[in-house]
Amino acid sequence: MHKRKPEWLKIKYRNSDQVMEVQRLIRNLTLHTVCEEASCPNLLECFGRRTATFMILGKYCTRNCSFCNVQSNHPQPVDPNEAEHVASAVCELDLKHVVITSVTRDDLPDGGAAHFVSVIHAVREKNPDVEIEVLIPDFKGDTEALAQVVAAKPDILNHNVETVPRLYPTVRPQAKYERSIGLLANAKKLDRNMITKSGIMVGLGETIDEVKAVMEDLCSVDCDILTIGQYLAPTKNHHPVIEYVHPDTFQAYKEMGLELGFKHVEAGPLVRSSYHAEAAANALKS
Prior knowledge:
The chain contains eleven helices and seven strands. The protein has helices at about 15-30, 35, 45-50, 80-95, 115-125, 145-150, 170, 175-190, 210-220, 245-260, 275-285; strands at about 55, 95-100, 130-135, 155-160, 195-200, 225-230, 265-270.
Protein backbone atom coordinates (compact mmCIF):
# COMPACT_ATOMS: atom_id res chain seq x y z
CA MET A 1 0.00 0.00 0.00
CA HIS A 2 1.32 3.45 -0.94
CA LYS A 3 2.19 5.57 2.08
CA ARG A 4 1.36 9.26 1.98
CA LYS A 5 4.39 11.49 2.50
CA PRO A 6 4.28 13.54 5.69
CA GLU A 7 4.64 17.33 5.62
CA TRP A 8 8.31 17.26 6.60
CA LEU A 9 9.17 15.43 3.36
CA LYS A 10 7.36 17.73 0.97
CA ILE A 11 9.72 19.79 -1.15
CA LYS A 12 8.73 23.05 -2.79
CA TYR A 13 9.36 23.10 -6.52
CA ARG A 14 11.76 25.77 -7.62
CA ASN A 15 13.49 26.60 -10.86
CA SER A 16 16.41 28.90 -11.26
CA ASP A 17 19.08 30.00 -13.67
CA GLN A 18 21.68 28.22 -11.53
CA VAL A 19 19.86 24.88 -11.82
CA MET A 20 19.69 25.13 -15.60
CA GLU A 21 23.29 26.30 -15.78
CA VAL A 22 24.52 23.23 -13.86
CA GLN A 23 22.40 20.95 -16.04
CA ARG A 24 23.86 22.50 -19.22
CA LEU A 25 27.40 22.13 -17.91
CA ILE A 26 26.84 18.45 -17.11
CA ARG A 27 25.41 17.79 -20.57
CA ASN A 28 28.14 19.72 -22.38
CA LEU A 29 30.85 17.71 -20.59
CA THR A 30 28.96 14.40 -21.05
CA LEU A 31 29.03 13.78 -17.29
CA HIS A 32 26.61 11.98 -15.00
CA THR A 33 25.52 12.95 -11.52
CA VAL A 34 24.07 10.73 -8.82
CA CYS A 35 21.73 13.64 -8.15
CA GLU A 36 19.93 12.95 -11.43
CA GLU A 37 20.48 9.21 -11.88
CA ALA A 38 19.33 8.35 -8.34
CA SER A 39 16.47 10.90 -8.37
CA CYS A 40 17.78 12.66 -5.28
CA PRO A 41 15.12 14.83 -3.57
CA ASN A 42 17.72 17.54 -2.95
CA LEU A 43 18.65 18.01 -6.61
CA LEU A 44 17.07 21.45 -7.05
CA GLU A 45 18.59 22.76 -3.84
CA CYS A 46 22.08 21.50 -4.66
CA PHE A 47 22.07 22.50 -8.31
CA GLY A 48 20.67 25.85 -7.18
CA ARG A 49 23.78 26.24 -5.02
CA ARG A 50 25.94 25.30 -8.02
CA THR A 51 27.07 21.99 -6.63
CA ALA A 52 26.64 18.39 -7.74
CA THR A 53 27.86 14.89 -6.93
CA PHE A 54 29.62 13.47 -9.96
CA MET A 55 29.03 9.83 -10.84
CA ILE A 56 31.90 8.32 -12.81
CA LEU A 57 32.38 5.05 -14.72
CA GLY A 58 29.20 5.41 -16.76
CA LYS A 59 25.52 5.47 -15.88
CA TYR A 60 24.85 1.70 -15.72
CA CYS A 61 25.51 -0.36 -12.62
CA THR A 62 26.43 -4.05 -12.56
CA ARG A 63 24.35 -4.57 -9.41
CA ASN A 64 20.62 -4.35 -8.87
CA CYS A 65 19.89 -3.03 -5.37
CA SER A 66 16.17 -2.78 -4.66
CA PHE A 67 16.42 0.72 -3.16
CA CYS A 68 18.40 2.42 -5.93
CA ASN A 69 17.18 4.25 -9.03
CA VAL A 70 20.51 3.99 -10.88
CA GLN A 71 19.94 1.70 -13.85
CA SER A 72 21.30 -1.82 -13.84
CA ASN A 73 22.46 -2.76 -17.32
CA HIS A 74 25.44 -3.90 -19.36
CA PRO A 75 28.10 -1.33 -18.40
CA GLN A 76 29.49 1.25 -20.76
CA PRO A 77 33.17 1.52 -21.75
CA VAL A 78 35.14 3.76 -19.41
CA ASP A 79 35.36 7.27 -20.89
CA PRO A 80 39.08 8.19 -21.16
CA ASN A 81 38.16 11.89 -21.06
CA GLU A 82 35.99 11.67 -17.97
CA ALA A 83 38.71 12.64 -15.46
CA GLU A 84 39.47 15.86 -17.34
CA HIS A 85 35.79 16.63 -17.76
CA VAL A 86 35.13 16.25 -14.02
CA ALA A 87 38.11 18.48 -13.29
CA SER A 88 36.76 21.10 -15.70
CA ALA A 89 33.31 20.98 -14.10
CA VAL A 90 34.79 21.44 -10.62
CA CYS A 91 36.71 24.46 -11.92
CA GLU A 92 33.69 25.93 -13.72
CA LEU A 93 31.48 25.57 -10.63
CA ASP A 94 34.27 26.93 -8.41
CA LEU A 95 33.71 24.12 -5.91
CA LYS A 96 35.60 24.14 -2.62
CA HIS A 97 34.49 20.58 -1.79
CA VAL A 98 33.60 17.98 -4.42
CA VAL A 99 32.02 14.56 -3.99
CA ILE A 100 32.85 11.92 -6.60
CA THR A 101 31.03 8.61 -6.63
CA SER A 102 30.47 5.86 -9.18
CA VAL A 103 28.28 3.04 -10.26
CA THR A 104 29.49 -0.38 -9.15
CA ARG A 105 31.64 -1.95 -11.87
CA ASP A 106 32.08 -5.61 -10.95
CA ASP A 107 33.07 -6.20 -14.59
CA LEU A 108 36.36 -4.32 -14.20
CA PRO A 109 39.36 -6.17 -12.70
CA ASP A 110 39.91 -3.46 -10.07
CA GLY A 111 36.27 -2.38 -9.81
CA GLY A 112 37.21 0.99 -11.28
CA ALA A 113 39.76 1.93 -8.59
CA ALA A 114 42.38 3.13 -11.10
CA HIS A 115 39.80 5.39 -12.71
CA PHE A 116 38.96 6.91 -9.33
CA VAL A 117 42.67 7.65 -8.95
CA SER A 118 42.81 9.29 -12.38
CA VAL A 119 39.85 11.49 -11.53
CA ILE A 120 41.33 12.49 -8.15
CA HIS A 121 44.64 13.45 -9.78
CA ALA A 122 42.98 15.38 -12.61
CA VAL A 123 40.71 17.32 -10.26
CA ARG A 124 43.59 18.17 -7.96
CA GLU A 125 45.85 19.27 -10.81
CA LYS A 126 43.30 21.76 -12.11
CA ASN A 127 41.87 22.69 -8.69
CA PRO A 128 44.74 22.38 -6.17
CA ASP A 129 42.77 23.82 -3.24
CA VAL A 130 39.59 21.76 -3.58
CA GLU A 131 38.69 19.14 -0.96
CA ILE A 132 37.95 15.80 -2.57
CA GLU A 133 35.50 13.32 -1.09
CA VAL A 134 35.07 9.96 -2.79
CA LEU A 135 32.06 7.71 -2.27
CA ILE A 136 33.33 4.33 -3.40
CA PRO A 137 31.83 0.88 -4.05
CA ASP A 138 33.13 -2.15 -2.14
CA PHE A 139 35.47 -3.32 -4.95
CA LYS A 140 34.29 -6.86 -4.04
CA GLY A 141 36.58 -6.71 -1.02
CA ASP A 142 39.75 -6.22 -3.09
CA THR A 143 42.18 -4.54 -0.66
CA GLU A 144 44.67 -3.76 -3.45
CA ALA A 145 41.99 -1.81 -5.31
CA LEU A 146 41.13 0.07 -2.12
CA ALA A 147 44.83 0.78 -1.51
CA GLN A 148 45.06 2.52 -4.90
CA VAL A 149 42.32 4.96 -3.92
CA VAL A 150 43.68 5.53 -0.41
CA ALA A 151 47.16 6.21 -1.84
CA ALA A 152 45.67 8.98 -4.01
CA LYS A 153 44.83 10.72 -0.71
CA PRO A 154 41.28 11.95 -1.08
CA ASP A 155 40.36 14.20 1.84
CA ILE A 156 37.43 11.96 2.80
CA LEU A 157 36.76 8.34 1.89
CA ASN A 158 33.09 7.38 2.06
CA HIS A 159 31.50 3.98 1.68
CA ASN A 160 27.86 3.52 2.63
CA VAL A 161 26.65 0.42 4.45
CA GLU A 162 23.13 1.59 3.43
CA THR A 163 21.05 -0.55 5.80
CA VAL A 164 21.13 -3.05 8.66
CA PRO A 165 22.54 -6.57 8.09
CA ARG A 166 19.16 -8.32 8.32
CA LEU A 167 17.84 -6.41 5.29
CA TYR A 168 20.81 -6.99 2.98
CA PRO A 169 19.26 -10.00 1.17
CA THR A 170 16.33 -7.87 -0.01
CA VAL A 171 17.91 -4.40 -0.15
CA ARG A 172 21.52 -5.12 -1.27
CA PRO A 173 21.49 -8.75 -2.46
CA GLN A 174 24.88 -8.57 -4.22
CA ALA A 175 26.64 -6.84 -1.35
CA LYS A 176 27.85 -8.09 2.02
CA TYR A 177 27.56 -6.11 5.24
CA GLU A 178 30.78 -7.56 6.68
CA ARG A 179 32.63 -6.67 3.47
CA SER A 180 31.53 -3.05 3.73
CA ILE A 181 32.57 -2.80 7.37
CA GLY A 182 35.86 -4.46 6.42
CA LEU A 183 36.51 -1.89 3.69
CA LEU A 184 36.21 0.96 6.18
CA ALA A 185 38.46 -0.89 8.62
CA ASN A 186 41.08 -1.49 5.92
CA ALA A 187 41.03 2.16 4.85
CA LYS A 188 42.15 3.13 8.35
CA LYS A 189 44.79 0.40 8.37
CA LEU A 190 46.17 1.69 5.08
CA ASP A 191 46.18 5.31 6.24
CA ARG A 192 45.52 6.04 9.89
CA ASN A 193 44.85 9.70 9.08
CA MET A 194 42.25 9.01 6.40
CA ILE A 195 38.87 10.51 7.31
CA THR A 196 36.24 7.83 6.74
CA LYS A 197 32.52 8.22 6.35
CA SER A 198 29.48 5.99 5.95
CA GLY A 199 25.73 6.31 5.67
CA ILE A 200 22.51 4.41 6.19
CA MET A 201 18.89 4.81 5.14
CA VAL A 202 16.02 4.29 7.56
CA GLY A 203 12.40 3.48 6.87
CA LEU A 204 13.15 0.12 5.25
CA GLY A 205 11.87 -1.94 8.17
CA GLU A 206 14.86 -1.74 10.52
CA THR A 207 14.56 -1.34 14.30
CA ILE A 208 16.20 1.28 16.49
CA ASP A 209 18.32 -1.43 18.12
CA GLU A 210 19.52 -2.57 14.69
CA VAL A 211 20.49 0.98 13.74
CA LYS A 212 22.39 1.33 17.01
CA ALA A 213 24.23 -1.95 16.31
CA VAL A 214 25.31 -0.62 12.89
CA MET A 215 26.57 2.55 14.55
CA GLU A 216 28.55 0.44 17.02
CA ASP A 217 30.06 -1.60 14.19
CA LEU A 218 31.10 1.58 12.36
CA CYS A 219 32.58 3.09 15.52
CA SER A 220 34.54 -0.11 16.11
CA VAL A 221 36.43 0.57 12.84
CA ASP A 222 36.93 4.25 13.71
CA CYS A 223 34.52 5.65 11.12
CA ASP A 224 34.54 9.43 11.57
CA ILE A 225 31.36 10.71 9.91
CA LEU A 226 27.88 9.16 9.71
CA THR A 227 24.87 10.22 7.63
CA ILE A 228 21.34 8.96 8.27
CA GLY A 229 18.44 9.77 5.96
CA GLN A 230 14.93 8.67 5.09
CA TYR A 231 14.58 6.03 2.38
CA LEU A 232 12.27 7.16 -0.41
CA ALA A 233 11.20 4.59 -2.99
CA PRO A 234 12.05 5.92 -6.49
CA THR A 235 9.19 3.93 -8.08
CA LYS A 236 6.54 1.40 -7.08
CA ASN A 237 8.86 -1.32 -8.40
CA HIS A 238 11.51 -0.56 -5.80
CA HIS A 239 11.61 -1.67 -2.17
CA PRO A 240 8.58 -0.15 -0.44
CA VAL A 241 8.85 2.49 2.26
CA ILE A 242 7.93 0.71 5.48
CA GLU A 243 7.97 3.80 7.67
CA TYR A 244 8.37 7.54 7.42
CA VAL A 245 10.66 8.21 10.32
CA HIS A 246 9.79 11.27 12.44
CA PRO A 247 12.34 14.12 12.67
CA ASP A 248 12.49 13.57 16.44
CA THR A 249 13.80 10.04 15.84
CA PHE A 250 16.48 11.42 13.53
CA GLN A 251 17.54 13.82 16.28
CA ALA A 252 17.70 10.87 18.69
CA TYR A 253 19.87 8.97 16.18
CA LYS A 254 22.19 11.97 15.90
CA GLU A 255 22.61 12.19 19.66
CA MET A 256 23.13 8.42 19.87
CA GLY A 257 25.83 8.53 17.20
CA LEU A 258 27.72 11.35 18.87
CA GLU A 259 27.56 9.56 22.22
CA LEU A 260 28.96 6.41 20.61
CA GLY A 261 31.96 8.32 19.28
CA PHE A 262 31.39 9.63 15.74
CA LYS A 263 33.12 12.95 15.17
CA HIS A 264 30.15 14.22 13.16
CA VAL A 265 26.63 12.95 12.46
CA GLU A 266 24.18 14.32 9.89
CA ALA A 267 20.70 12.89 10.49
CA GLY A 268 17.39 14.03 9.03
CA PRO A 269 14.64 13.03 6.60
CA LEU A 270 16.34 14.57 3.54
CA VAL A 271 19.94 13.82 4.51
CA ARG A 272 21.93 11.94 1.88
CA SER A 273 25.58 10.89 2.00
CA SER A 274 26.75 13.87 -0.08
CA TYR A 275 24.13 16.39 1.11
CA HIS A 276 25.91 19.38 2.71
CA ALA A 277 29.11 17.31 2.58
CA GLU A 278 31.26 20.43 2.77
CA ALA A 279 29.60 21.48 6.04
CA ALA A 280 30.24 18.03 7.51
CA ALA A 281 33.90 18.23 6.50
CA ASN A 282 34.22 21.71 7.96
CA ALA A 283 32.67 20.54 11.23
CA LEU A 284 35.65 18.22 11.73
CA LYS A 285 38.03 21.15 11.50
CA SER A 286 36.35 23.23 14.19
